[in-house]
From TrEMBL:
Residues in FAD/NAD(P)-binding domain copies: 14-338
Lineage of the organism: Eukaryota, Fungi, Dikarya, Ascomycota, Pezizomycotina
Name the UniProt record assigns to this protein: FAD/NAD(P)-binding domain-containing protein
Species this protein is from: Penicillium cinerascens
GO molecular function: electron-transferring-flavoprotein dehydrogenase activity; flavin adenine dinucleotide binding
Transmembrane annotation, as ranges: 12-33
Amino acid sequence: MPSNDGVLAAARAFRVLIIGGSYGGLAAALTLVDLSRGRVPRFSSNPDAKPPPYRVPIQITVADERDGYYHLIGSPKALACEKFASESWTRFRDIPALKSPDITFIQGSVSGVDCAAKVARILETETQNTRTEPYDYLVVASGLRRVFPAVPQSLRRAEFLEEAKLHANDVRNARGGVVIIGGGAVGVEMAAELKILVPQQQVTLIHSRKRLLSSEPLPDDFAERVDTILREVGVEVILEQRVVDTTEVDVDGERRAWLLTLSDGQRLTTGRVLSAISRPIPTSMYLSPDALTNDGYVKVHSSLQFSGDVSNPEHHFAVGDLAAWNGIKRCGSAMHMGHYAGNNIYQHILAERGAGKPNFMTLNPFPNVIGLALGHKAVSWTPDQGTRHGEDLLTSLFGEDMGNTSMSTLQKVGT
Ligand SMILES: Cc1cc2nc3c(=O)[nH]c(=O)nc-3n(C[C@H](O)[C@H](O)[C@H](O)COP(=O)(O)OP(=O)(O)OC[C@H]3O[C@@H](n4cnc5c(N)ncnc54)[C@H](O)[C@@H]3O)c2cc1C
């Protein structure tokens, strides 16, 4: 029950388990840390927001396969530039905001969740033992599974730095150029970053459709602008061609080369082929199919509580890429959802303890919005402003470091 000193009395701390310590998961964790200490959440954009009425004992556990927070949106640059790679991955234990007795980390992969018993099974990376983790509230924020080279496959910072170094050397030294297959968002960013970072390297982007970004719900003038900028920086763009055959050919024993055959019979030789065509897959296999859409996304209400046919749906939340919500998947949306889920868990706790009705934050549909970093320029599209591009836009959208600094809300210690 609430007490007069602003503390919600409870026999023990409320246990919140968060699966995935990235944009969505960490935003939920830090919102809960702030609210539980009686502070306005650091993610709040409301200048008139009042501190919450009660401090609440909360114990947060974040389970992640990685040993740290990886700035995923900087991946195309991190995998081509060692210095940037080092800044892209911060071990959880080194993030100031997360150094708190209220937060613990488990490095491991969640393999099962029992919503009725409110227990998760986690395969710990270090010991390879499976532990069971009971919780009162669950936030699933484990995003989508993506393959290399869209994202690194290392799970520890030290291994990631090696992976990034090897990859950067590979593309730098590839004899006969680098070919990227797939002109979606990842492919175009990768092509531009490579060409800017290794200008002497020939970079070719091959896409099967008539226009780049063909599967994104965006107008042609956006795709055309991206195409123009890529050609300006020196990327060769080949459209309407599929790679129908890739054969490895030995050049000088050590360095290999690849012979690619395109659908029109054209052939080209290259020193490195990077695939940017695989479709990302939701990481939701640890949940019952009843919680999921047919393609594996978690069904949610606008409060981000599960809306599928599972036990205790009001104690289960999904945020970020994994949530079945409209709009292009973006890290800003993931953080926004994390903020809302953290707030709604706090509200639910208060309501269950008799401290008033829950004042849930509910999500509106997201408009399709996109911002792409293409070397020294960015291109963006919003329903209000249409297509914009330029060097200033790169700075305003991504800063000097692909948005890593602007994500510093995740790093900040609450005041
Ligand atoms: C190359 C690339 C460039 C991008 N560029 C942009 C951009 O410029 N702007 C933008 O807004 N968005 C961009 N995006 C999209 C953006 O990165 C995602 O929308 C965002 O990362 C989603 O955040 P999330 O927290 O939902 O999930 P993620 O960031 O994917 O994090 C999921 C976390 O869960 C962990 N995990 C997964 N499975 C398990 C499991 N079973 N058990 C435990 N942990 C698990 C992972 O290790 C990871 O840390 C880009 C994406 C890519 C791939």
